[in-house]
Amino acid sequence: MASMSARQPSGESEIRVRSEALFGQACKLEVLVAIADIGERPFTLSDLVEAPQYRSRYHKVLTDLCNAELLCRLPKEGRDVPYTRVPSVLWQWAQEYVASVTEMGHG
């Protein structure tokens, strides 16, 4: 699954600015959208990250989401830790918010 920054390079800056303002983490919105796009199936950090420089930032977001009980960490499979998302309106909100920012021309 491609990260939002890979799908929407023109919106990367504004989305990251807004993410920083909302959550204190510039990549949290793009991670939320990537998880929302994956849907109900299990995923790993590698499924979310295409650019290696974002791996540690994305890992921090996954840890935060687990601590907030929005993700469930599954038993480790080899080197990868699988996760599943917990049902929440957050996933749809993230998709809609990012789409609205992009559509308004702010992204």
Tell me what you see in this structure.
It comes from Mycobacteroides abscessus subsp. massiliense. α3 crosses α6 (89-103). This protein is mostly helical and 107 residues long. The protein has one domain (4-103): Orthogonal Bundle (Arc Repressor Mutant, subunit A). It is globular and about 40 Å long. The protein has a two-stranded antiparallel sheet. The chain has helices at residues 4-7, 12-23, 28-38, 45-48, 55-67, 89-103; strands spanning 71-73, 83-85.
Mean of residue pLDDT? 87
Question: What would you give as the CATH superfamily?
Answer: Winged helix-like DNA-binding domain superfamily/Winged helix DNA-binding domain
If strands are numbered along the chain, what order do they take across the biggest sheet? Answer: 1-2
Unreliable residue runs:
1-10
Name of the level-1 CATH class: Mainly Alpha
Instruction: Report the sheet-strand fraction.
Output: 5-15%
Give the SSE order as H and E letters: HHHHHEEH
Tell me the quaternary state. Answer: single chain
Total domain count: 1
Q: What is the CATH topology assignment? A: Arc Repressor Mutant, subunit A
The helix/strand class is mainly alpha
Largest sheet, in brief, is: 2 strands, antiparallel
What would you report as the Rg, rounded to the nearest angstrom? 13 Å
The CATH architecture assignment turns out to be: Orthogonal Bundle
